[in-house]
Amino acid sequence: MRADLEEEKDERLAALAAGGDRDAFDALVTRHRQAVYRLCWSAAGNAADADDAAQETFVRVYRSLPSYDPTRPFGPWLRKIAWNCGLTARRDGNAGVPRVAGGDAPEAVDPAPGPEEEAAGNEERRRVADAMAGLPAELRMVMVLRAVEGLSYAEIALAAGIPAGTVMSRLSRARTRLLAALYARSGGGS
Amino acid sequence: MECRETQTLLTAFHDGELPAADRARVEEHLRGCPECAALLADLARVDRAAGVPDPGPAYWNRFNARVMDRVARDADGPGVRVLRPKGGWMREQLRYLVPAAAAAALVVVIVHYAGMRPGAPIPTPAAPPAASKPAAADSSGERMAKAEPESRATKKAGSAAAARPVPPPAPAKDRVATVTREERDRLAARSLPPGNEDASGGRAAAPTPGSPPVTAASGMTQESPAERKKMERVAAPMTEPQGAGKAASAPGMGIAQEPSPGSPCERAHALAERDRMRDAEAAQRACLAGDLDAPSREKGLVFLAELLDRQARFSEADAVIAEVDRRFPQSRPLDHYRQQRPMVQKQPEAVPVTR
């Protein structure tokens, strides 16, 4: 990535990319690829479809840059495309049924043998990740946008096209289910 | 505050989204209730654990290159340059239609002159050559070089026209340049359903006397915005009876079967393209009241939703979208429209793209 692009705002990069600046587009991809992948994963529910959807997202972004209005925030626009690509990939890939595979478990934070507490933390992550993969996509989406991306309710509402009150209720339902998964192997409560 | 009420507010409290007054009440309760405090701690625990599996550094190292490969494949080759039309995304969509319309116009002109006036030469442009813009209406020309991302759709449009029984007297570029204002008007009049005087008049009035021939995509970059708009208004509807519009493959462009000329369905599109959304809505409703096959109905309903959005009748559009969802689960036209919808709602005055 060109150093002069690193500090540029998304909207400026998008305008440059729309004018044919490949480096600006590359900078946008680098900046957002992980968030896009996570969102696609939350829509698709598995790594293979998330990969395809994340790639497709940026292809669509590239194609749509001429229509992007740089006075509007780039993030919500991008997230909307990513979410739709994720849903489409899921439909194409497995007819709407999230796949939960061992290969989809999160990478261990510390693969080396560590203290018992850390091992328990990894086990907890694995359980929650399994429960996440089993959530309905709309619950998984709000959970990823909030807990992983740190978006506000208003931003999530914009990305998901739902009222902020619905964001809260979906988050509450998602966390209830994840907590149940957490408690299930923790002896029924903690 | 009791535990039950606290717990209903705990998610918003945890996310920092609670109004200050409620926040203070929850804090006060938490100080005296270990059970609710433990629940709050568990919410944080779940959030920390709720990551998404990371594919790892090797994946990310290849990610950008894979995107660019796909973009290049999508654009039929590397070195693409995205043009930025001044008119925004609607104009971008129309760029697919303009070359197709020009090619379609050519077919009609040639058929007209070959059939009605045997032996008559193909007319030359009414405007002096100096006023003519270079044509780039099909897969060749300046536009291709500048905007390869659109080349695939453009080629399809070109090939759709080429598949028709057109005598090959001149290169496409030259042939398109012979589409004059008169021919354009005549074509516009033909493409309209009988009795639609208003639409016909509006379309015929769009080109100004002495205006240069339709030059399709060259107009996008070289002519004034007003002139471009006129041309697009004239050109876009022409694609429908010719079927060339099907070649468009951009996101947001539907692939609906074009209704038969003169049908309410076609009238709806023609009216919408003239910004007469209310009339277009009425025509579209009449269209939907007819006997349509399932794909046409699905796309027709999506178009109706777009027409409602363009009139800022969002809740009615929501209802139509809900109907599409119910009747056509996982509808791709709807999926496409959902992507475009925020922009449609933002630009209600723009020409619709759902087809």
Task: Describe what is shown at a glance.
The complex is a heterodimer of chains A (190) and B (355). Chain A is mainly α.
Which terms would index this structure?
heterodimer; A: 190 residues; mainly alpha; 9 helices; 71% helix; elongated; B: 355 residues; 63% helix; 0% strand
Characterize the structure shown.
The complex is a heterodimer of chains A (190) and B (355). With 190 residues, chain A is an all-alpha fold. The longest helix of chain A is centred in the N-terminal third of the chain and has 23 residues, at 22-44. Chain A has helices spanning 3-6, 10-18, 22-44, 47-64, 74-94, 116-134, 137-148, 153-160, 164-184. The model of chain A is unreliable at 94-113 (pLDDT under 50). By secondary structure, chain B is mainly alpha-helical. In chain B, helix 5 packs parallel to helix 7, helix 5 (89-116) crosses helix 12 and helix 9 (181-191) packs antiparallel against helix 10. The longest helix of chain B is centred in the first third of the chain and has 28 residues, at 89-116. The chains are: A mainly alpha (190), B mainly alpha (355). Chains A and B meet through helix 2, helix 3, helix 4, helix 5 and helix 6 of A and helix 1, helix 3, helix 4, helix 5 and helix 17 of B.
Characterize the largest beta sheet of chain B: strand count, sense, and whether it forms a barrel: none
The SSE order of chain A reads HHHHHHHHH
SS-based class of chain B: mainly alpha
Q: Determine the oligomeric state from the structure.
A: heterodimer
The whole-angstrom Rg of chain B is: 27 Å
Mean pLDDT of chain A: 79
The H/E string of chain B reads: HHHHHHHHHHHHHHHHH
Task: Give the total of beta strands of chain B.
Answer: 0
Helix fraction of chain A, binned, reads over 70%
- Termini separation of chain A comes to 47 Å
Q: State the helicity of chain B in percent bands.
A: 55-70%
Net shape of chain A: elongated
